[in-house]
Amino acid sequence: MLAHGTPSHRAALDRARDFLADVGLERRLSVRFPHQLSGGQRQRAVIARSLALRPDFVVLDEPVSALDLSIQAQILDLIGRLRAQFGLTILFISHDLRVVRSLRPHCGAASRQGGGGGEADAVFHAPRHPYARALVAAIPQIAAAGERRPARQSFGDGG
What we know:
Strand content: 5-15%
């Protein structure tokens, strides 16, 4: 430990590598630059960086929006594990309600216009605000072979 409680370079590097390990990254990646990491690795590194401050509350704004589906699932699992491990309260912001739905049992589907939030099932089955209804309508639906899907409501329909 150096003056004023500052850790030595070695101690700081070891601590950083421990945080990388906490989010599922190999310790050797600590010397890489962001452009040398994949999208999922970068997201994990950002999460590790935020954990270094030992927060009680974390805001995750569209944390999986630029990732493919398998990496999204890994990051969502990681977020759940870290929430439990570190006792975090997380504000998860996303326009992808398919992702939000995976975060049950409680979620908020509020919009800037004051849409309602609440229990996940209520938000997904009976959204109150037009913006929330439009978001739910935008969740991709896969039709069975030969089955026709109903036409989607456009965002401007409001009802």
